[in-house]
């Protein structure tokens, strides 16, 4: 008798945890347009990181230009 009650309650609990089938699940609405971003305590750090990335890209371009100039001098002027 105790096993039957235990088994029935276990089956009831497991069936309650089951999700809805796909046919019954409500369809998700289109995501709303993103709202204005709220200011956080990390904004200053994020701005600094973005600025550093921009400087890094600029330095990389200048390095590539200098490398091309040096290579041109070695091949043509050397």
TrEMBL record:
Keywords: Lipoprotein, Signal. Residues 21-41, 55-71 have a biased composition (Basic and acidic residues). Residues 20-41, 55-78 are annotated as: Disordered. It comes from the Bacteria. Residues 1-18 form the signal peptide. This is Putative small lipoprotein YifL. It comes from Dokdonella fugitiva.
């Amino acid at each position: 008798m105790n096993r039957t009650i235990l088994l029935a309650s276990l089956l009831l609990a497991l069936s309650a945890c089951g999700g809805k089938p796909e046919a019954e699940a409500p369809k998700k609405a289109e995501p709303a347009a993103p709202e204005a971003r709220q200011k956080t305590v990390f904004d200053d750090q994020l701005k600094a990181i973005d600025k550093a990335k921009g400087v890094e890209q600029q330095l990389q371009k200048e390095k590539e230009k200098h490398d091309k100039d040096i290579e041109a001098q070695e091949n043509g002027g050397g």
